[in-house]
Amino acid sequence: MEKKEYTLIVDECLNKIKEFDNEQVLSLQNTQTAIVNCRTALSRLKEYTVHHKFENQEEEINFFKVYKGKVLKNLIYFIEVNTIERNTPVVSIGAQKKFIVRQEQKIKKFFKKHDSLVQYVTLNLTNLDTLFYTLKPINESFQVCNESYHTDPKFYTNHDLLLAKIKAFQKVLDYLKVKYTGIDHFLKFGKPISPKANMQWTGSKYQLVELIYGLHSSKVINNGETDIKKISQQFASTLNVDLSDIYKVYTEIKSRQKTPTKFLEEMTMNLRDQIDKSYR
Q1: Angle (CA) 204 261 269, round 5°
Q2: Which of 172, 139, 181 is nearest to 158 (CA)?
Q3: Do the beta carbons of residue 68 and residue 45 sit within 8 Å?
Q4: pLDDT tens digits for range 32-87
Q5: How high is the pLDDT of residue 151?
Q6: CA 21 to chain centre
Q7: Is the CA virtual torsion 96, 99, 105, 110 positive or negative?
Q8: For residues 121 and 115, what is the distance between their CA atoms, to the nearest angstrom?
């Protein structure tokens, strides 16, 4: 089935901004870039709705809840983060921590005001989607969302802006927590938390476990004084892979009948081939 144009618009937008999700603290330049990308995507989505009608109510809900909702959520998120970064005080560490706490309190106050909708989002409910995510005339709705007063009624539903704001603020809370933790880390270790590396382990888990145990047995990490658990946690975090069952995997590796260190031996051969090729 051919993808609808609006799905391609959203995919393109999300691909452009996904790199910023790997940053612990966002720069003003990056937030501004993300904001421009999201606004451009929203404009294109609005243009789409002008020239195309939805096939049915299910598609209409899906458009406003899933596709437009993703872009709108990210737009609000990056606008909020941009505001936070522009207003974070530089006078002292204490002032920065107090500022973060105040921002968290504002969001929690907002959540308390809209408690029922926060639950609707958190629990992934759908029973009111027809009301929240369709372009019903305002007088057909039993409740008017204040967030929709000054928005285009042909592109904003009764609650889609407010619900996107809730999702965005949940993400902003996570950002503030990381920012606060980063300050504590700086006070304790004298350096900021290292940003998440944009790397993914694409080999098998067995291959990675071989590599970890090979490094551990060679005592090349902290002179062999760091245990397997800590080494595996570092690899799991850096390479975005689940190694919670590393001991089980190692047991299976040991029980191999032929070569238990198959990957390490393949690595050695591949490196030798590469070295030989470099001399040709």
Answers
A1: 90
A2: 139
A3: yes
A4: 999 999 999 999 999 999 999 999 999 999 999 999 999 999 999 999 999 999 99
A5: 61
A6: 5
A7: negative
A8: 10
